[in-house]
Amino acid sequence: MMNIKTKILAGLACICLILTVFFWPGKEEDAYSSDVVREAEDVSERETEMLAPDEVLQAPDGRDIRLQALYNQKPVCLFFWASWSSDSLRQLAILEKACVQYGQDVYFVTIPVGPDTADSRAYIHQQGYALPVYSTQKQMLHDYGVHQVPQLIFIACGGQMTRPFNTVLNERQVTYEIKKMLK
């Protein structure tokens, strides 16, 4: 003969079984398809889109040029650095290779920061790099949140920018980010 606890447990088990049968979620094929995932990523990307602030740069030839004029023509690889930072120098070497490979499709903008910008320009010249060195006002450093170097930002055509990279990206990572901008 069943005692009262057993009857209650048996009743609860039956209720759970009935609820499980009626409310069991079926597999939604669409939720796992690559098209749905890609669409969700696109929506997420648009919702978190950051537009690059427009700034005035002094080009290597001395002309003033608006950053917006650059990124409205081609994607921009924007790099803030200093010659005293070993990470900056490692990233420069990687960006130089990328500049040689993608320089016709991407603007490479390197901006030395700090009191030793003359030393930084001399370093670029001494290494024989093709990377152009631009100058800017301190306001740009504030607008882009540059508090340390190196800082690398990729700006797609139209001004959508990535989050700042504050670590050294290897060649594969730089190539990946550039190819993403060129799509």
TrEMBL record:
InterPro entries in the cross-refs: Thioredoxin-like_fold (IPR012336), Thioredoxin-like_sf (IPR036249), Thioredoxin_domain (IPR013766)
Pfam families: Thioredoxin_8
Span of domain Thioredoxin: 46-183
UniProt protein name: Thioredoxin-like domain-containing protein
